[in-house]
Design goal:
- By secondary structure, the chain is of the alpha+beta class.
- Strand 6 and strand 7 (197-205) form a beta hairpin.
- The protein has helices at 3-15, 18-56, 98-107, 143-146, 159-163, 173-180, 225-233, 251-265, 283-326, 328-336, 341-378, 386-412, 416-421; strands spanning 60-65, 112-127, 130-139, 151-154, 168-171, 191-194, 197-205, 220-224, 240-245, 278-282.
- Helix 2 (18-56) crosses helix 11, helix 9 runs antiparallel to helix 11 and helix 11 (341-378) runs antiparallel to helix 12.
Amino acid sequence: MNLIESFRVAIRGLTSNKMRTVLTMLGIIVGVGVVILVVAIGEGAKQQVTAAVNSMGTNLLNVTSDRNRLRIGTAVSRTTVPTAPTTPNTTPVNSLTLHDARQMEAIFTTTIDKVAPQIDSDIQIRLGSVNTTTEVAGTTIDYPYVKKWSIAQGRFFTEEEVAGTLRVCVLGATVVEHLTNDPKTDLTGKTIAINRQTFLVIGTLAAKGSGGNGQDQDDVILIPVTTAMSRVYHRQALNNILIRCTSEAMMPLAQEQVSAYLRNRHHLQPPFPDNDDFRIRNQLELMQTQQSVTGTMTSLLSAVAIISLVVGGIGIMNIMLVSVTERTREIGIRKAIGATPHDILLQFLIEASVISLLGGVIGIGMGIGGSMLLASVAGWATIVSSNAIIAAVIVSAGVGIFFGIYPARKAAALHPIDALRFE
């Protein structure tokens, strides 16, 4: 019997009991579909994180105050370390200040390109009768350069406006949408109320989307840092300092220099970094960490899907064993008229492979459809990987062959006389 005839006989055997064939495919369909969907979500998440980090640049450091950790060898927390009394014009010695930002840029010229100090909090804003709450961040004129952020409409504030503590602001696209229901509305020249104070809108930032942590970067209002300190927040301590290094290669050295500067100014004692009252986040390390987490979750979910494939393969083996038992007399007749053990083995292997491959194809279709549905309805970033599809086809075929070998060999080993006597 040739291969085409064996394939025709195998298809006839599968179609003779359609419901059982479909139920046997379910495990393969679910397993392959979940693998495709999970990999698509994982690849989409990785690309989203990479795009978010690249939109700000990989040579970015973020210095934040971290005074809540316990000092090594003492039970005194950093929030209880005695500091100078604070007034509207003074800051604790272990805080980040505008002077720190300017000193870093002035001293470490070979490693640091520009810095952008930031003081921020969520504040209620109002345009006419519309109220909303958003992040209001005070910063300097270098902020767009440091974060690689362009202006869509109007302009950014100037050094003179920073020095004069003027009440001017630049809006993010999400803020414009909240205030007007249209992110493309030009509010330049309008006035809005920030913390019950009138600010003149001088520009709108270009839409940037979600950041590496999933937060909406466009839900922000930027104002001069001096205005934020003296008119809005009434404090001098910064939330963080963004540092754009001269290159990625200079980032480790810049991180060491900034750490040494802050340890000296804050009068910190070893061991380091355990006793540091600040934290420096490397944008490149952040991307690698987030991608590692995403990859781990994808691998874990894929492992669950592979278990489903194994269960589906066991289902194929069980059904094929049942099929061999039910068709024992048929096998005996075929052997009696000249079919060889190889022909019988090939027939049942083809049946198992067809079930597995057809289930794999349907599963691939369901996985691709599910990823497209998530992208259109839920707005998730999904990327269907061609490698995942090829792997799914190979694995599904392999499952069919592996779990079909035992039933096929059992059928091929039947003695013709014993098979014909089987009731």
